[in-house]
Structures are given as structure tokens and as C-alpha cells.
Write a structure and sequence with these properties.
The complex is a heterodimer of chains A (410) and B (539). With 410 residues, chain A is α/β, with parallel strands linked by helices. Helices cover 36% and strands 13% of the residues of chain A. Chain B is mostly helical and 539 residues long. Chain B has 25 helices and no strands. Chain B has helices at residues 2-19, 21-38, 44-49, 54-59, 62-95, 101-109, 116-127, 132-137, 151-175, 179-187, 192-221, 224-228, 234-243, 247-272, 296-324, 338-368, 372-379, 382-386, 389-402, 411-435, 439-447, 452-481, 484-489, 497-506, 510-538. Classes of the chains: A alpha/beta (410), B mainly alpha (539). Chain A: InterPro entries: TAT_signal.
């Protein structure tokens, strides 16, 4: 228990702008009890659908499905213990899924999210998903090409980055989702015209080594990083990674190309080290090879879950590109003949169980308010992300140009 | 008199063969097949037209030219490096009296079985800043090791994993070398070096060039290695633009890449054009021994060193990933299934079989005909070999959606992509083996009254069979390793070893990549055995 408290203390050190939810053991126990009652059964899996029979729209309701207990939807490790029960629509209250469906799912985090789809297929024996994975941006272009040629192959596009969803939306290769499907998700994490809906959040963050820095060393604006001595030449980044490019795009949209280029140049000249991906950056921070880095929030949590004593913590900037919250989201592809199945599938992705799964297995930010953020991090409301239309992140050409000009190759 | 007449008739027939309907038919077939393979790449033009007048300004933009120069420089460096490593190793293992000669031959060929991106990853893990080597050296007071990243590092890694092309083709030439010529030169008081330079080298030059061509085009089309080694080359530039929703720009860059390929091909045909060296008499082939004396022990260090770095290092790194991925990784299962391995082997077999069917007419025709159509049919498919997987995938997606929608995202389309991309390797080996068929044997068979078909079946075919097998094995091997085109073109729910490795690596589960990576290397290693076994037959 002390170990757990240590962990939540380190990950969630308290400050006004980074308030973390450090849950005591007692609260958690109550919460777990609550969840048992919500899901009608503990690990013994006695839940043959306490509320399932009469729940949902009932349109395609056959025999009530066997929904596993909550623990089956949770990851393992110290970061997952002591979580409150998720609040939101339970899978039990949703119509059963049946029939087959083709899914394009973005690589990277998508590989982990897909395990939830595998669980759904176990829950609903009549439900089958044929999936294909490639990079999200590649799949987005494939979707647009297929729709333009009049032969779409997939029913759902599940991207790990909003820019790819924005690209498909701009090219009008989607069908808008019904209001009642997307309704649980705050409007900032949905596309215009309900073109897509966020399923899991990915916040930009500053992982830092707690032996080398304290969080007060890290300015609350990325703009101040180049002038911060303790960060000069001791940071790492992964400019080829899509999320980093989205971060630069956000900075360009907020502060203009000139200031963004200058920022990149001064960070590079300060000696910021390049890495192939942000998981490596976060591991290097934990190893003490770097004082701090630029990475999506979940990488540090993964390091932490793997090595609970690693001296790594997360800081967030405020109201600028460094605090961008990007999303993985789902989109219904134009031309699909499986509207109901797709809608119900997306409802499942936004259920309490699914959101708990994404939050505890891949450490993503939940998209529905009833589920607590991973690892005691602040909620997206508390994070103060910049005011940006996520779909605009698809305008990457000028971003790549200015990264080139700054000699930070993307 | 009668015999002389027969010979004359046979000669006439052989000559007439060039003009005959069958000869022309074969040329046409070869040209048609080559055109069918290259045509879909033309679909990139459709994308480029969408750029309008911007196309020109992008083509001559300084940034484009800068990347172009860097790519060409990398191709030059890797090709030169591969010749410098591959040729001495081939000479040592064929002619030198190395201890455990056969073992070193296998070791020297084996790096080809390892995907260069896995090799690059291992190199970075081992020699990168704070890598395994740095960990070993830092207690000894060595804080700074030269960086592995950048142009030099990329050139070294690529050389390490592509030189076997030169090694194998050079070995093949050496094995069919008429050793009596070298003996004659030595008898005439030529020094060992002079005999090598004036007799051996000209004879094996076509073999070296054939291997160097494969190395050059591989380097031009490789994405993973330069990307990991942080060198911005054409493929990396294309990939970044494609992933930034700039497909048209990516298509334009791809066309420029093809222009570079055309130049490389023209250069190669200049050097390798003299095929006369490839004809060997049936004399004392390859038996010539280089007596190294005591030097044979230090000489064995060369293949040992290469094997250590190129083979053992990645295996050690995979093993480390495997052991490190202990519990605590709460990222769930993402279970590996052996069906991915079966899928890999299955598509690779299909690709190898289809490639042989396509390559046989092209390879045989280009070896026996001097017509421009035959040589164009021989050269043109190499464009496919130089096409980076991502470019091929972009072109084939557009092509099949516009022209053959029912073909889109099917297994045949995937196999077609592999054939376009890798079949040229088979053309090379089939052509070379056909060139080495003693024309006297064919003439003799015809003189003795055999029909053309029967001669082909009983004389030519058995002699070119090793070349066909080598070609098929090369296609199999490279198909097993292919990633970018597989990722985009494969049917839904079809995973192979490499797509699985990609998925788990993208998700940061390096430990999960260890078993499939080893399986990939083992299966690829088996196909190397096929290639080397063919050599023993010609030995």
C-alpha cells in the first residue's frame, strides 16, 4: 500500500496547475465495492446481465450476452489499483452486436486498443470484425481513395490521431454519426457535423527525471523552454513521430510559422537529442540519460507501470501547444451498409467498460466524464489544453516545411 | 561431309532463331510481361498531374535536389563498400584454403536473411549513445564513442546487410571460372596479383556488376535503415510527405527516384555489357586454389568479424528484448499466432513461383537475343525493384481502384506487387546461368536431330535450373522481409510475420517482436541454404 501511495505521490505531485487525484486506499475500496454492484458480480463472473435484459434500445436484442466482470476490462500493475468504479453507460445496457464488420485501425496505440475489439468478439459470438492495420495517415488516404472510386472496403475507420480523421472529414468520405452516439463525449473531442468522435485521449506532456529536476523547474509555457538553463541540451524529442508533428502544427496555428521555426531552431541549437519514438524518449528520461523530453503522456505511465520505482514524473504546460490533447477516434465510412452495427459498435467504444479498458490498459485519457484519468493525472478540464480545432491538425504541409527550414527533419 | 553439313544446318538454325517466329514470339512475350509489370507504376503520373504547374517548381526546389544528392551519395558509398567486402570474401571462400570453408561461406551469405531495418535497430541499440557498447566502455573511462547515426553509420549498416548480393553473384562467377586460364597466366610468369587483375577480374566482372546493381537499387529503395540511422534520403522524404497527406508530392518524388534508377541501370549495362566473360568452357572450373599458408587463419577473421556483427549482434539484441519483456508490461496480450508465419511463407512461395514464370522468358530471351526489345524487357522491370515499397503501394492502390476494382486488396494483388518489386532478382540469376550454358552443347543437340523444344528440355533447362532456383530463393527471401507494400495492400485480417513485428513494435512491445523476428531469420536462412546448394551443384 505504501508503495502505491509513493507511486501516486510521485506521478501526482501537487501544485495548483497540476492537481492530481491521489486516491487513498479507503476510497478505492469503497469505489471497488461500488463497481461490483454496478456490474453485478465480482471476479466470479456471476453477471448474466443484472440490468442487461431490459437495457439498451432493444433493437437487436437477442439473448442477453455474458459480460465479464470489471476486472477483465482493466490492465494490471500499480497504476491500476485503487481506481474508482467507472461511471457511464454499461455494455449491458447496449444492444447486442451481431454480424460482421470491416475495420481500418491505425497502428501504434491502435494495436493495443484492438484488444478491446477482440473482447467484444468473445462477448458476442455472432459479432465478427475483419481488421486491417497500417499507419493512420496511410489508412486515411486509402479511405478517401476508396470512397472516391466508389468501392469502400471498410465500415469503420479508427484512427489514433485526429489529423487523419480531419483529412477524411475534409474530403467528405464520412457519414455523420447520430447525436445520441456521440453525446457522451465533450464537443471539443468530436468532429464538426459529428464526422467523428474521440474514443481515447492522448495528451502532450513533459516527462522529467525526478532526481534531476523538480516540477517547478519546468516552465508552464513551451515557449520558455529554450531560455531555461536546466532544460538546455538535456531534453529529447522524436520529430518523425506523428504526435510530435501535430504538436508543431498546433504551435504553428497558435503562434504562427515564424515563432514556431525560431522555437524549433533554438531547441535544436540547445542540443535537444533526437530519438526514433517517444517511448524511447520516456525510457531515457527514466534512466537519467535525459532530464526531460517531449512525449505523449501514456509513455511515461507505461514506463512507470513497468518499473514502479523509476524516477519519472509528468509535467504539463498550460494553454499552449505543449498542452494539446489529441484523440484517437472513430469515423463511419461513407458507403457502409451497416449503419446500425457501426453506430452500436461506436456506442460500445464509449461505454464505461471500454473507457476503463483504454484508460487502464493503454493509459489513454478517457473520453467520458465518468471515468477517472490514468495514473492519477489531472482531467482534461484541469489540463487547460489550447483552443484548437483538432481537425485542423491535418494541415501538415506547412508544418513539414518549417520543420525542414529549422533543420529538424520530420 | 555429312557431319559438317549437319553442323552448318544447326548453325543456320541457331542464327535463324534470332529472326524466327518463335524467337520473336518470345521477345514479344518478354516485352509484354515487362510492360504489364511496369505499367501500374505509370499511375503515379495521374497523381502528379493533379499538382499542375506546382510540379515543376517542386522538382527543382533546392530541398529536393539536396535529398537527391544525398541519396545518390549513399548509393555510391554502399555499392563501393559492398564490392570491397563481397569480392574479397567470395575469392577467399572459393579459392582460398580457409579452415571450415563451407561454414564461412554460409556465415558470409547469411546477413542477407536479416532485414536491414532489424539490423539497423540492433546496431543502434548496441552502438548508439548509451547503448550496450557505451555501457561496457564507460567504466573503462571512455565516455564518448563516435556516433553511429548519420551518413557513415547508414552506409556501414546497409553495406553489412547488402554485400551478400555481391558475394553470391561473384561466387557464382568464380565457380564457373575457367581456372586453366589463370594457370596459363601463372605459367607465363604473371604474378598472382597480375593474374587476378588481368584474367580473373575481367571474367568475374559481370557477376560483380550484377550484384552491385542489386545493392545499388536496394539502397535507393530502402526506407527503414536510413530512417533509423537518421539520414534523410529519397524514400524517407517520400514517406514523410505521404504520411502528411501529400500523396501527389510523394508521387512526383517517386518519379524522380525512377529517373535515378534509369541512370543506375544505364551505368550497369555499360560495365556489365560484356557478357563474353560469363561464357565458360567446361574445363577446370573454380578448382584453382589460393594457397594462403599461415595467413589462412587471420583470413578467416574477415568472415568471422562480419558474421559476428551482422548476425550475432541482432540475435543477441532480439534475445535481450525477449528477456526484458518481463511482467509489469500491462499492455495485454497481442498474441502471436504461428498462422502469421504460415501466411508469410505462403505469400513468399506464391511470389517466388509467379516470379519464376515471369522471369524465365525475360531472362532466357535477354541472354540469347541482342534485339533492343529483349534488352528493354530485361532492363525495364528493374524499375520495379528500385521502387520503394511505399511507392509501389501508392501506385497499385490508385491503379487497382481505377482500373481493376475487383483486384483491390486481394491476395493476387499482393503477390503481383511482390513480383513487380522482386522478380528482377530472378531475371539476373536466370540470365547469368543461361549465359554460362555452352552454346556448343545446344548446337550439338540440334545437330543430333533434337527438336528445339526437346533441346530446351533436355539440355538448356537442366543447365539453367540452378539459376532458376537461386532466383526463386532470392524472391522468396526478400518477400518474407517486405513491409511497406504488405502493410497497405494485404487483404483484411491477413497478417504476416513482418506486419506482426510492425504492429507490436509500433505499440512499443519490443519483447513480443523477438520470436517472430527469429522465426523470420530462420526461415530466410533456410532459403539461403537453397541458394548455396545450387552452387554446390555447379561446383
Amino acid at each position: 500500500m505504501t508503495d502505491t501511495n509513493d507511486t501516486s505521490d510521485r506521478i501526482g505531485s501537487s501544485s495548483s496547475r497540476r492537481r492530481f487525484l491521489a486516491l487513498g486506499g479507503a476510497t478505492a475500496a469503497t469505489a471497488l465495492a461500488g463497481c461490483n454492484s454496478l456490474f453485478g458480480g465480482g471476479d466470479g463472473d456471476g453477471s448474466d446481465g443484472g440490468g442487461g435484459g431490459d437495457g439498451g434500445s432493444g433493437t437487436s436484442q437477442g439473448a442477453p450476452a455474458e459480460i465479464p466482470s470489471l476486472s477483465a476490462f482493466r490492465g494490471s500493475g500499480t497504476l491500476v489499483e485503487d481506481r474508482p468504479a467507472p461511471d457511464g453507460t454499461s455494455i449491458q445496457d447496449l444492444p447486442n452486436l451481431s454480424g460482421s464488420m470491416n475495420l481500418y485501425i491505425g497502428g501504434g496505440e491502435g494495436g493495443i486498443y484492438f484488444q478491446f475489439v477482440e473482447m467484444l468478439q468473445e462477448i458476442y459470438p455472432d459479432f465478427q470484425v475483419f481488421a486491417s492495420s497500417a499507419s493512420s495517415s496511410s489508412l486515411a488516404q486509402t479511405v478517401v481513395q476508396e470512397v472516391e472510386a466508389g468501392s469502400p472496403q471498410a465500415d469503420v475507420f479508427w484512427s489514433i490521431d485526429a489529423s487523419s480523421l480531419g483529412y477524411v472529414a475534409d474530403n467528405e468520405a464520412y457519414e455523420p454519426l447520430p447525436e445520441d452516439v456521440v453525446e457522451p463525449v465533450p464537443s471539443g473531442f468530436r468532429g464538426a457535423d459529428n464526422a467523428w468522435v474521440g474514443v481515447a485521449g492522448r495528451a502532450r506532456s513533459i516527462p522529467y527525471n525526478t532526481n534531476e529536476l523538480s516540477e517547478s523547474d519546468i516552465p508552464n509555457k513551451v515557449a520558455e523552454f529554450p531560455n531555461t538553463d536546466v532544460l538546455a541540451g538535456t531534453m529529447g524529442w522524436a520529430p518523425t513521430y506523428g504526435a510530435f508533428k501535430s504538436f508543431v502544427t498546433a504551435m504553428r496555428l497558435l503562434r504562427g510559422p515564424e515563432a514556431t521555426r525560431e522555437w524549433l531552431v533554438s531547441m535544436r541549437e540547445a542540443g535537444t537529442e533526437r530519438y526514433p519514438n517517444e517511448f524511447v524518449v520516456s525510457n531515457q528520461v527514466a534512466d537519467g540519460a535525459l532530464n526531460a523530453g517531449f512525449a505523449n503522456h501514456y509513455y511515461a505511465l507505461r514506463v512507470k507501470n513497468q518499473r514502479p520505482n523509476a524516477p519519472i514524473d509528468l509535467a504539463f504546460t498550460e494553454g499552449d501547444a505543449g498542452a494539446l490533447v489529441n484523440v484517437a477516434g472513430a469515423l463511419r465510412i461513407q458507403g457502409t451498409e451497416k449503419d446500425d452495427l457501426v453506430n452500436n459498435f461506436i456506442r460500445h467504444l464509449l461505454s464505461a467498460e471500454a473507457q476503463e479498458f483504454f484508460t487502464t490498459v493503454s493509459f489513454a485519457y478517457p473520453m467520458i466524464p465518468g471515468v477517472a484519468p490514468p495514473g492519477g493525472l489531472p482531467t482534461t478540464d484541469q489540463l487547460n489544453p489550447p483552443d484548437i480545432d483538432l481537425a485542423e491538425l491535418s494541415d501538415l504541409e506547412p508544418t513539414l516545411e518549417l520543420m525542414r527550414e529549422a533543420n529538424v527533419l520530420g | 561431309m555429312k557431319v559438317r553439313e549437319r553442323v552448318a544446318t544447326a548453325r543456320a538454325r541457331a542464327f535463324e532463331d534470332e529472326e524466327s517466329a518463335i524467337g520473336r514470339g518470345l521477345t514479344l512475350l518478354a516485352a509484354a510481361v515487362a510492360a504489364a509489370l511496369v505499367a501500374p507504376l505509370g499511375w503515379l503520373l495521374v497523381d502528379v498531374f493533379a499538382l499542375g504547374s506546382r510540379a515543376f517548381s517542386l522538382t527543382v526546389a533546392p530541398q529536393t535536389l539536396q535529398v537527391l544528392v544525398r541519396s545518390v551519395a549513399l548509393v555510391g558509398a554502399v555499392t563501393a563498400g559492398s564490392v570491397l567486402v563481397g569480392v574479397p570474401l567470395a575469392v577467399l571462400t572459393v579459392q582460398g584454403d580457409l579452415p571450415l570453408k563451407r561454414f564461412w561461406t554460409v556465415v558470409a551469405a547469411l546477413p542477407l536473411a536479416i532485414p536491414s531495418y532489424l539490423g539497423a535497430f540492433a546496431a543502434v541499440s548496441a552502438f548508439g549513445p548509451r547503448g550496450a557498447l557505451a555501457d561496457v566502455l564507460s567504466p573503462l573511462g571512455i565516455q564518448q564513442i563516435p556516433t553511429i547515426y548519420g551518413f557513415v553509420g547508414a552506409a556501414l549498416v546497409l553495406t553489412l546487410y547488402t554485400y551478400p548480393y555481391v558475394f553470391l553473384t561473384t561466387r557464382a562467377s568464380l565457380l564457373s571460372l575457367d581456372a586453366s586460364l589463370v594457370e596459363a597466366a601463372r605459367t607465363l610468369n604473371a604474378s598472382r596479383w597480375a593474374a587476378f587483375r588481368r584474367v580473373t577480374l575481367p571474367q568475374i566482372l559481370p557477376g560483380i556488376t550484377a550484384g552491385a546493381l542489386l545493392v545499388a537499387l536496394y539502397t535507393l529503395s530502402d526506407f527503414g535503415t536510413p530512417n533509423i540511422m537518421r539520414v534523410e534520403v529519397f524514400t524517407q522524404f517520400i514517406y514523410a510527405r505521404y504520411n502528411a497527406f501529400m500523396r501527389e508530392y510523394a508521387a512526383l518524388l517517386s518519379l524522380e527516384l525512377f529517373a535515378v534508377t534509369a541512370v543506375v541501370l544505364a551505368l550497369e549495362s555499360r560495365i556489365g555489357a560484356d557478357d563474353s566473360g560469363a561464357y565458360g568452357s567446361s574445363g577446370n572450373r573454380g578448382a584453382f586454389d589460393l594457397d594462403l599458408g599461415l595467413w589462412r587463419y587471420p583470413a578467416a577473421l574477415l568472415p568471422a568479424l562480419v558474421g559476428l556483427v551482422a548476425i550475432l549482434l541482432p540475435i543477441a539484441i532480439f534475445g535481450m528484448w525477449f528477456l526484458r519483456s518481463g511482467p509489469g508490461y500491462a499492455t495485454g496480450s497481442m498474441a502471436f499466432s504461428w498462422s502469421y508465419g504460415l501466411n508469410s511463407v505462403w505469400v513468399a512461395l506464391l511470389a517466388a513461383g509467379a516470379s519464376v514464370l515471369v522471369a524465365v522468358p525475360i531472362g532466357l530471351r535477354s541472354a540469347t537475343s541482342d534485339s533492343w526489345a529483349a534488352s528493354l524487357a530485361d532492363r525495364a522491370p528493374y524499375v520495379g525493384y528500385a521502387a520503394p515499397g511505399i511507392v509501389l503501394a501508392i501506385a497499385l492502390v490508385s491503379f487497382s481502384l481505377d482500373v481493376l476494382p475487383w483486384f483491390y486488396k486481394t491476395l493476387p494483388l499482393l503477390v503481383f506487387a511482390y513480383v513487380v518489386r522482386f522478380m528482377p532478382q530472378a531475371i539476373g540469376s536466370i540470365r547469368t546461368s543461361r549465359l554460362q550454358v555452352d552454346t556448343g552443347l545446344v548446337e550439338a543437340a540440334r545437330t543430333l536431330g533434337r527438336s528445339r523444344a526437346s533441346t530446351f528440355r533436355s539440355v538448356t533447362l537442366p543447365l539453367v535450373l540452378p539459376g532458376i532456383a537461386t532466383g526463386a530463393a532470392l524472391v522468396f527471401l526478400t518477400t518474407m522481409k517486405e513491409l511497406p507494400a504488405t502493410l497497405i495492400l494485404r487483404p483484411l485480417r491477413f497478417d504476416t510475420l513482418v506486419t506482426y513485428i510492425w504492429r507490436v513494435q509500433e505499440a512499443g512491445l519490443y519483447g513480443a517482436a523477438a520470436v517472430p523476428a527469429l522465426a523470420l531469420v530462420v526461415v530466410s536462412g533456410l532459403s539461403m541454404a537453397v541458394i548455396l546448394a545450387q552452387e554446390q551443384r555447379t561446383d
